Amino acid sequence: MHALLQWYVAAGVDEATDAEPRNRFDQPPPPARPPARPDATVAAVPVAPPAVAPPNAEYISAAEIAAGCANLAELRTAIAAFDGCALKRTATNTVVGDGNEAAALMVIGEAPGAEEDRRGLPFVGPAGQLLDRMLAAIGLDRSSVYISNILPWRPPGNRSPTAEEIALCQPFVERQIVLVQPRVLVLVGGISAKALLDKREGITRLRGTWREFTAPGTAQPIATMATFHPAYLLRQPSAKREVWRDLLAIQKKLEESGE
Ligand code: URA
Description:
Elements: H1 2-10, H2 57-67, H3 72-81, H4 87-90, E1 98-99, E2 105-109, H5 114-119, H6 126-137, E3 145-149, H7 163-180, E4 184-188, H8 190-197, H9 203-206, E5 210-213, E6 222-227, H10 230-235, H11 240-257
Helix pairs in contact: 2-7
The protein binds uracil (URA).
């Protein structure tokens, strides 16, 4: 038994989830849409018809739920109540955004890791500590930045999220962007950059140049910079040189775009 456990650990299995296997295709019905609140601060937007066929019924449901949320508190509650993504069943916590909800800068990562899942907050593990130091280098901290992820639930064992999981949860992160309305958006890592810029290239090609992000409800296109993920920098410190250049460009853009 001990040898079997050692073999599991060596193979990257670091958490027990269930004693019995589960049928992940046996999804529960999509959750009911939350009622609109009378004190809404941002108007709910109609859901634009998708350009391509949606991957599945849950995607529509997430898009409708997100579009019906008029503020971040409502969206947070709706994401926590959403049962359409199987990742939620193996996660300890739903991890939505953290920081200043009126921030000029918003940072989007990939998905919660082990520490984030335990504490229910984004970027609080080793990669998050490096992200804090990156922000501090350009005079920012969590009181001036809003931080979130593409996925609100940790993929088991920190595996890469699937294309279906990303598409399913994307309306939630897009609605967060619309509700925060940052002047500048920073996408850390390839998963976040490819999903929100709708590109196929990897992060090495996407980083370092200004692009625009738009979604249903954005008042105007948001200046967007992709850069390397801090978890990658922990493994590959030599890439910090490029990230430093990106950070300086982000600082300049914030100064230029300040009211
Ligand atoms: N990596 C991410 O992309 N997000 C987190 O919240 C933590 C680590």
